[in-house]
Design brief:
By secondary structure, the protein is α+β, with helices and mostly antiparallel strands. Helices cover about 30% and strands about 25% of the residues. Strands 7, 8, 9, 10, 11, 12, 13 and 14 form an 8-stranded mixed sheet that branches. Strands 2-1-6-5-3-4 form a 6-stranded antiparallel sheet, with helices on both faces. The longest helix has 15 residues, at about 65-75. It is globular and about 60 Å long. The mean pLDDT is about 95. The structure holds pyridoxal-5'-phosphate.
């Protein structure tokens, strides 16, 4: 079996013409051969959207939530609406085509296609996940960085696409380099008016007493699928869960905190802005165990 898998969507949206009307909705292709034209707006402008879905023992996890978020990102970018039935099938097929593994991922990408054309480009790519055992067990060092706009940017300036999962991730990568320069592993963005937002590829979750909290939506941040599952799990343990407007001071006072995301799952914060931060090892392991075992 191939170590990684690619399926190209022939008809990523029912609202746009198929690439080949006679072909099936998606077909497998060789991920080691070039497939994308240099004229695709994904390559020239980062003009598209994506989702990265965890696959646990062959099961795509939180897939419906990911698909809903994919559709929302498409609406925000005014892309042709993804045909979710086709994308769902393609994600399942790509996950099933991988050699069995406890942890893998599928990345779904929809772009505006070739400039001036009417057909969006779509593909799903699947591979085994990197090993995140150490980060999950020992924690990560995190710094807080100013994102440079206010926490209400989503309503004041929707054209900035804050809260859409776009392919324009150069900034989300640059902050990791900034973190490395400051001897840290990851970042939490803070709004220019002092509200905790999210990580460059993760959602902030923290524990205070018996409660689990997250900054929530409407702040120009992603509605995290992992955070939703972590809250579900915490509620099953009888914990309170809530969204709250969070400041760096509130976060610093927390009993424990995590950056949660698909694939890496829950990474406990062990250092915040250079200061030691408490890890809740028991809850961390329980959350990761739960997330790894999800079958849908
Ligand atoms: N916020 C951002 C900016 C992200 O890129 C991601 C995931 O990549 C998340 C949050 C976490 O989302 P999820 O838990 O659905 O993977």
């Amino acid at each position: 079996m191939a170590q990684h898998v690619l399926a190209i969507l022939n008809r990523p949206s029912a609202d746009a013409p198929a690439h080949d009307p006679a072909a099936p909705p998606f077909t497998f292709a060789d991920p080691d051969s070039p497939q994308l034209t240099v004229l695709d707006l994904a390559a020239t402008r980062g003009d598209g959207i994506f989702e990265t879905i965890s696959v646990g023992n062959g099961h795509p996890q939180a897939l419906e939530h990911h698909l809903q978020r994919f559709a929302k990102s498409a609406r925000m970018l005014e892309l042709p609406a993804p045909d979710l039935a086709v994308w769902r099938d393609a994600v399942h097929a790509a996950a099933a085509a991988l050699p069995p593994a406890p942890e893998a991922f599928v990345k779904a990408v929809l772009t505006r296609g070739i400039e001036g054309g009417a057909r969006p480009t779509g593909w799903v790519y699947a591979a085994h996940s990197p090993d995140f055992t150490r980060q999950r067990a020992e924690g990560i060092r995190v710094i807080m960085l100013d994102r440079g706009y206010r926490h209400d940017v989503e309503s004041t300036s929707p054209w900035l696409l804050a809260g859409a999962k776009t392919l324009s991730y150069a900034i989300n990568r640059a902050v990791f380099r900034e973190a490395a320069r400051r001897d840290a592993d990851d970042v939490i963005f803070v709004s220019s008016d002092g509200i905790i937002l999210e990580g460059p590829t993760s959602t902030v979750v923290y524990r205070r007493g018996d409660g689990l909290y997250s900054p929530g939506t409407g702040l120009g941040i992603l509605d995290g699928t992992t955070q939703a599952n972590v809250f579900r799990y915490a509620e099953s343990l009888g914990m309170q869960t809530a969204f709250e407007l969070t400041t760096p001071e509130i976060l610093r006072e927390a009993d424990a905190a995590w950056l949660v995301s698909s694939v890496r799952l829950a990474a406990p914060i062990r250092e915040l802005d250079g200061e030691p931060f408490p890890i809740d090892h028991d809850l961390s392991s329980a959350i990761n165990e739960y997330l790894r075992g999800l079958t849908a």
